[in-house]
Amino acid sequence: MAEQRSPAVRSEDALEATLVALRPILSESAVACFVVTLRRDVVFCNDACAELVGLPRSVIENMQGPEVFSPAGEVCEICALMRPTLDEGKSSSGKAARFETRGHGWVAVTLDTVPLRDPAGSVVGGLGLMQDRRSAQ
């Protein structure tokens, strides 16, 4: 008899398979990249993201989005902009946001979001791409 797996487990498996393909590409990007699950757990960030946030990758990858991008417990702008991507499968581009980093104060970024889907087309996570806008201010 085939093992029955919950939708959440299948979703996590599909996201992990996507990450296997994306990790080598995103890891080398100069653009700050992160991937979150539908539960808003950060499961990947690259070095550019870790530097922007001010925490090691290994720490960020064990946190939820609000803990990463809103450490003081304020409204998490990054999370709010990721919501339509995770909940409705909508991409977005060029959205202005800011978040509080560890050691750098507030950082203004431009955020692009992309839903990550399983082979059936269901959203299993989201990719965030951040451009540091401090020099543009």
SSE blueprint and pairings:
Layout: H1 7-27, E1 32-37, E2 42-45, H2 47-53, H3 57-60, H4 65-69, H5 77-88, E3 92-100, E4 106-117, E5 123-132
Antiparallel strand pairs: 1-2, 1-5, 3-4, 4-5
Description:
The protein is α+β, with helices and mostly antiparallel strands and 137 residues long. The chain has five helices and five strands; from the N terminus they run αββααααβββ. It has helices at residues 7-27, 47-53, 57-60, 65-69, 77-88; strands at 32-37, 42-45, 92-100, 106-117, 123-132. A five-stranded antiparallel β-sheet has the order 2-1-5-4-3, sandwiched between helices.
Key features?
137 residues, alpha+beta, five-stranded antiparallel beta sheet, 5 helices, 5 strands, 36% helix, 30% strand, globular
Count of discrete alpha- or pi-helical segments spanning 4 or more residues: 5
Q: Report the mean per-residue pLDDT as an integer.
A: 89
Low-confidence stretches: none
Tally of extended strands?
5
If you compute it from the alpha carbons, what radius of gyration comes out, rounded to the nearest whole angstrom? Answer: 15 Å
Structural class, by secondary structure, is alpha+beta
Query: Between the first and last Cα atoms, what is the distance in angstroms?
Result: 61 Å
| Strand order within the widest beta sheet | 2-1-5-4-3
Question: Helicity, in percent?
Answer: 25-40%
- What does the overall shape look like? globular
Helix-strand topology string: HEEHHHHEEE
Largest sheet: 5 strands, antiparallel
The proportion of strand residues reads 25-35%
